[in-house]
Amino acid sequence: MNTVIAFIVIFGALVFFHELGHLIFAKRAGILCREFAIGFGPKVFSFKKNETTYTIRLLPIGGFVRMAGEDPEMIEIKPGHRIGLLFNKSEEVQKIILNNKEKYPDSRIVEVERADIERELFIKGYEEGEDDSKLTTFPISKTAVLVENGVETQIAPFDRQFGSKTLGQRTMAIFAGPMMNFILAMVIFIILALFQGIPSNEPELGKLTPDGSALKAGLQEGDVVNSIEGSEVSTWQDVVEIIRKNPGNELNFSIVRDGESMEVPVTPVTQDVEGEKIGLIGVYNPVEKSPLKSLTYGVKETYFWTIEIFSMLGKLLTGQFSIDALSGPVGIYVSTDTVAKSGIFYLMKWAAILSINLGIMNLLPFPALDGGRLTFFAVEALRGKPIDKQKEGMVHFVGFALLMLLMLVVTWNDIQRFFL
């Protein structure tokens, strides 16, 4: 159960901050955001605040922000339609009732002659009960809603739609999702540095494990190592390399403790790591705590893991890794179970790495991903005009189908690897 909770919290946080990036920058650009969703499929929970409905959906495989203009907007109000109109204090149409008009006795019934609910914002028609020959124009409020089967949907004037914004605004609204994943990872690494300290490369002993040979031999946290078996050491890496190369061999540590020099013999235990026998004495590297250095550490760790993940992607593309090496939600769940046993700090680091991974995956120039959309924006910038929406939509549809197929293959591989 702890693993399930940890997985849900980590997954939820990664998707939440990713979609929050899209939401913040879309709203900053003035785009009407209809829905902010975590998950796909049927709604489990929802509430509405201002213009946006916030939902949690059944299938935990991602999330989305539904922006006005990305899908075909609204129902077209055609000539001859009979609709009900409710007005605000400024005598602008606030509600357009498409059916069940009898439930709105205060509405004014109008037979539509012409309507534009995107650009010019008006409805022109003949009002029932008035002079049938009098054609009246009714101005529409920018925040008006369409009411169909009792459900209200806010109209999206063209200047509130995604496609009306500048290329820079649209690019930022899409790029902000992956960007937030990198920022989240950076913040997690900074928090870890503040609580745990920043790893130091000084030849000084950090915390000792209770069952390690270092503690049994009499070494203590804070001991400064001058040499091992007569070989001078100047960094923590020097200490590690000598210990790893001498499994089972007694080593004489020359240390300084509280200003006093002493010799302590220690025998590293032997451990098999991927077929190689190495020595371990049960000592962590030293750490230092500094708020300023914690900020630098957060940036460096984010950069390091970004390069590592790109390197692994490169190996996958060049055939050094097979598709069987990829993991989906099942593999991530199993890995989360393993990491969770090591403690909250390891779990936080795991979440940071997953966040970077999610950011990078979304930036790949593949249809249906954020990177695919950014690629279309780049083409638009080069040719000076956007690509046809229908063609772009078809490319993204095919890309999404291929991604779902890949997800199924990876998930099946995970199930076979871990459970069969």
Architecture overview:
Residues 6-406 form the Peptidase M50 domain. It is found in: Membrane. Belongs to the peptidase M50B family. The protein is an alpha+beta fold and 420 residues long. The protein folds into three domains: 81-155, no CATH class; 199-288, PDZ domain (Pdz3 Domain); 291-419, no CATH class. The protein contains nine helices and 16 strands. It has helices at 2-28, 167-196, 213-217, 236-244, 291-317, 329-340, 344-363, 370-383, 389-419; strands at 33-49, 52-67, 82-87, 93-97, 108-116, 122-127, 136-148, 151-154, 198-199, 224-228, 231-232, 251-257, 260-266, 269-273, 276-280, 287-288. The strands form five sheets. Strands 3-4-7-6-5 form a five-stranded mixed β-barrel. Helix 2 (167-196) crosses helix 5 and helix 2 runs antiparallel to helix 7 (344-363). The longest helix has 31 residues, at 389-419. The model has no long low-confidence stretch (mean pLDDT 89).
Q: Please report which band the strand proportion falls in: under 5%, 5-15%, 15-25%, 25-35%, 35-45% or over 45%.
A: 25-35%
Instruction: Give the end-to-end Cα distance, rounded to a whole number of Å.
Output: 21 Å
Could you name the ranges where pLDDT drops below 50 across 5 or more consecutive residues? none
Q: Round the Cα radius of gyration to an integer and report it.
A: 31 Å
Q: How many domains, in number, for the residues? A: 3
Q: What string gives the helices and strands in order?
A: HEEEEEEEEHEHEEHEEEEEHHHHH
Note the main sheet: 5 strands, mixed, barrel
Strand tally is 16
How does the helix and strand content classify structurally? alpha+beta
Strand order of the largest sheet: 3-4-7-6-5
Oligomer description? single chain
Fraction of residues in H or I helices: 40-55%
